């Protein structure tokens, strides 16, 4: 599915929508002994890795306006397209903020499966190599690579049930680097986390930044418990794997991305003024001050300021 679209040139506007204390020894082993996928990284950069957000058409403009008012940034030209290999149409627009890139979709027809279940779109240097590397590391291909007017796309699923879009453009896009790199937040069960980590680390050629086996449960709405939190960094950006028992109060598990801002209080004020609702008021841990926000149209995001690096 073409979840990143570009309208470019003088008469055609460019449009892309896709677009530790307890650092465990076995995680180090993953980083060192994970199977090698391909001969080189297929990643391009975190500014090209887009969070996919699906909203109702009537909420589309309010949602985009709220994002820009909260984080700043610009948008590509809005349009209506067929963005997957099915007879469907969607409103589509890319929101380029300093803290992350968001691909917004407002389907005018029913959303075909499994589109809408993918969290993120990763721009890759070569589609065939990327799909082959993902399969080699244990990922499943949910949607085989297909052509769109500006490139090719596929949807893969990592062990543990995490869906990701891969996309490639015939003409490479060019975006400015982000001020802060957002984190892709994935919730994985204890029984699948090790397999997920092996697969994703091999594919992304990333490294484990931290593996905290007793992270404070307040981060996932379980203040009386602790849980395992693994942070990964790669050329695709940041990924935080939250290993839980699944007994999560709303809205935890619904937020797909964590956005790093300089001043959380100021950002939340802007969000509320633009129609967003603070679902989880600010709380502090030893690493960050964070809150969870729901934007117009239903998109839920974690927003945080880092207090310790």
SSE class? alpha+beta
Which runs of at least 5 residues are low in confidence (pLDDT < 50)?
Answer: 1-35
In helices, the fraction of residues equals 10-25%
Strand content: 35-45%
Kindly provide the radius of gyration, computed on alpha-carbon positions and rounded to a whole number of angstroms.
Answer: 19 Å
Could you tell me the mean pLDDT? Answer: 89
- How would you describe the oligomerization state of the chains in this entry? single chain
User: What is the N-to-C order of secondary-structure elements (H for helix, E for strand)?
Assistant: HEHEEEEEHEEEEHEEEEHEEE
Tell me the number of strands.
17
Record keyword descriptors for this entry.
309 residues, alpha+beta, 9-stranded mixed beta sheet, globular, disordered N terminus
Describe the structure.
It contains five helices and 17 strands. The strands form two sheets. Strands 1, 2, 3, 4, 5, 6, 7, 8 and 9 form a nine-stranded mixed β-sheet that branches. An eight-stranded mixed β-sheet has the order 11-12-13-10-14-17-16-15, with helices on one face. Helix 2 packs antiparallel against helix 5.
Ordered list of secondary-structure elements with their pairings:
Layout: H1 25-33, E1 50-54, H2 60-71, E2 74-75, E3 79-81, E4 90-97, E5 100-107, E6 120-123, H3 127-136, E7 140-148, E8 151-158, E9 162-169, E10 183-188, H4 193-204, E11 207-216, E12 226-234, E13 237-243, E14 257-260, H5 264-273, E15 277-284, E16 288-294, E17 300-306
Parallel strand pairs: 1-5, 6-9, 10-13, 14-17
Antiparallel strand pairs: 1-6, 2-4, 3-4, 4-5, 7-8, 8-9, 10-14, 11-12, 12-13, 15-16, 16-17
Helix pairs in contact: 2-5
